[in-house]
Amino acid sequence: MNSKVEEILNRQIAAEASSSQLYLSMASWAECHGINGTAKFLYLHSDEEREHMLKLVRFVNERGGTAIIPAIDSPKSDFDSLRQLFVLLLEHEIKVTEMINEVVHVCLQEKDYTTHNFMQWFVAEQLEEEALAREIVDKLNMIGDDKGGLYLFDRDIEMMQTSANAPQN
Ligand code: OFO
Question: Do residues 88 and 136 lie in contact, with contact meaning Cβ atoms separated by under 8 Å?
Fold first, then answer.
């Protein structure tokens, strides 16, 4: 495997692992605060990020590279509000999208069209995840501090689909 592509894919493996830990930490915070619908949504989201990491690990190894399993720093574990949590989640997803774009860029530079093709799944996934996070932040901006609104939000988010629990076609 091309060494520059291998290096940036390993950087992405670490990023997906950190995303998974961050969302796990957010899920745990929500659960401790009795925001159970949100906790369920975030636990699933954390699992989904771990799946992304595994997808990359297997791809790197199958193509003759060596996947590096990273050490992960402790993620942020306290949040001022549900809104702050989701604003951070959206910012995090935007950062990950930039990283995915960088991987795609290196693939093109190195003429690695197989990895470029493989990465298109991640490009589409980021688009979906960013859109969903934006929708959630918009909802929370509308609700503000209204307790009834927050109660309904927490009930509804349980039904919101991340691609992890979306029906497969
Ligand atoms: Fe890995 O999908 Fe978002 O971060």
Answer: no
Say which DSSP state 62 is in.
H
Top mutation candidate among 13, 57, 125 for ligand 1, by most atoms within 8 Å of CB: 125
What does the pLDDT look like over 158-168, one tens digit per residue?
A: 887 665 555 54
To test the pocket of ligand 1, the residue of 52, 55, 162 to mutate (highest count of ligand atoms within 8 Å of its CB) is: 52
Q: What is the tens place of the pLDDT at every residue in 128-161? A: 999 999 999 999 999 999 999 999 999 999 887 6
65: enclosing H helix or E strand: none
pTM: 0.92
Hey, where are the domains in the chain? Answer: 3-69+78-159
State the fold for domain 3-69+78-159: Ferritin (1.20.1260)
Q: Which residue has the tokens 């939000």?
A: 153
